[in-house]
Amino acid sequence: MDELLIEPGSAKDKTSQVTETSSNTAFPEFPNKNINKQIAVASTLAAVGLFLSTRLDFGVSLKDLSAAAVPYEEALSNGMPTVVEFYADWCEVCRELAPDVYKVEQQYKDRVNFVMLNVDNTKWEQELDEFGVEGIPHFAFLDREGNEEGNVVGRLPKKYLLENVDALARGEASVPHARVVGQYSSAESRKVHRVVDPRSHG
């Protein structure tokens, strides 16, 4: 079989020279539009994924927690230890801690009651006084008989909440973090947030 020889100066040889020359030029190449599209799509997907994961993690609202909470009267009579959270919808720290509270609640809800008492509801005035609520969120940890074993006020590490709830669930005589005060909202703010019936003004 005859071999095909390409002589210098032939058409095929010139093509290869042109290709070599163009790849070595200093002219900037036009960006590949497909790569730009792929980067844009990947960036968008990453942003959506980040949003969704944040939404899933922080998507638990105080309203969700309140809806899932055990009624206070039931919690005091069912023979299980109880965590009472005094909160308000306007309380930033309360909202911030909601996902952590939810995770702990999901882990222990079969062994510990989780009660949510809104400080804006005048129905809970007696409990606010009884538990000495001055800042929110205010977490009170009660044993099976309803005796307060400790309380944590304000922003707390999830670890503290978890360890206290775990101690309650195991029937320990006390909770490891019995008196902790972090950054909190003043419960006195509830007076500003009370809704006054406009009909009561002449």
Structure summary:
Helix content is 45%, strand content 15%. It is α/β, with parallel strands linked by helices and 202 residues long.
Characterization of the model:
This protein is an alpha/beta fold and 202 residues long. The protein has two domains: 30-59; 62-192, Glutaredoxin, CATH 3.40.30.10. It is 45% helix and 15% strand. The protein contains eight helices and seven strands, in the order H-H-H-H-E-H-E-H-E-E-E-H-E-E-H. The strands form two sheets. The chain has a five-stranded mixed beta sheet. Helix 5 (92-108) links the parallel strand 1 (82-87) and strand 2 (113-118). Helix 5 (92-108) packs parallel to helix 7. The longest helix has 26 residues, at 33-58. The radius of gyration is 32 Å and the shape is globular. It starts with 10 loop residues before the first helix and ends in a 9-residue tail after the last helix. The relative contact order is 0.12. The model is unreliable at 10-23, 48-57 and 195-202 (pLDDT under 50). It is found in: Plastid, Chloroplast. Residues 16-25 have a biased composition (Polar residues). Keywords: Chloroplast, Disulfide bond, Electron transport, Plastid, Redox-active center, Transit peptide, Transport.
